[in-house]
Amino acid sequence: MVPDRPPARVPVPPKIAASRQVRHTPSAGVRQERRVEQERRAVQLERFQLAKRLQAPGVSAAAIMRETGMSRKSVLSWIRLRELPERNRTAPRPGMRSSTASICVRVGRRGVKVLSD
111: which DSSP letter? Predict the structure, then answer.
């Protein structure tokens, strides 16, 4: 007995294949998420620049913490840096479905691990 085979796929001519490609626009939720990300980044950059301005004339880390109300960890790490680094992003693994990859990246930004799909 021969196992059933799936029907053969008929190749699509390149001209038709190109016309089938659709450029997807991000959903309202994704646009909102990106806007919130940009706003958070702007606030963090502003705080970073404030710490750097206070550090320039020789103000101590403890004084910067007292004056700004920033956390000790932020001030101590920021005074060692020249510029604010980008946030780490969870990279999609090779072979991961695109829908799972986008969830992984979004959830990874929040610091939560995706255990299953």
Answer: T
